[in-house]
Inverse folding.
């Protein structure tokens, strides 16, 4: 994981004030999820993580994440697998929020 990303993630956890369950962090480009993509995704850069969270806690975490500088937020809040994808990729197309 990229040190700057980890510092931002720690700041988020401190402000959130609760434990955060990371369901996916760094993924090697050969990981099955990354290998299915045309190009490896942000997880393969060490600058992305998925955090298991739901309901009002998801909204609180999302709000703090934007305040501390995460630029990519993917929201999955339906079904059994509920999480927020967070990354701090810099690009002209950021900030960006999407749903799965």
């Amino acid at each position: 994981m990229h040190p700057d990303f980890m510092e931002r993630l720690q700041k988020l956890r401190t402000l959130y004030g609760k434990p955060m369950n990371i369901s996916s962090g760094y993924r090697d480009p050969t990981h099955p999820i990354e290998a299915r993509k045309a190009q490896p995704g942000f997880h393969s850069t060490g600058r992305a993580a998925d955090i298991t969270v739901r309901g009002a806690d998801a909204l609180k975490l999302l709000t703090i994440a934007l305040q501390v500088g995460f630029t990519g937020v993917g929201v999955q809040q339906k079904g059994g697998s509920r999480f927020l994808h967070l990354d701090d990729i810099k690009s002209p197309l950021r900030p960006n929020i999407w749903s799965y």
Remarks:
- The chain has one domain: 3-89.
- Residues 3-89 form a domain with the Muramoyl-pentapeptide Carboxypeptidase; domain 2 fold (CATH 3.30.1380.10).
- The CA atoms of residues 2 and 46 lie 5 Å apart.
- The mean pLDDT is 93.
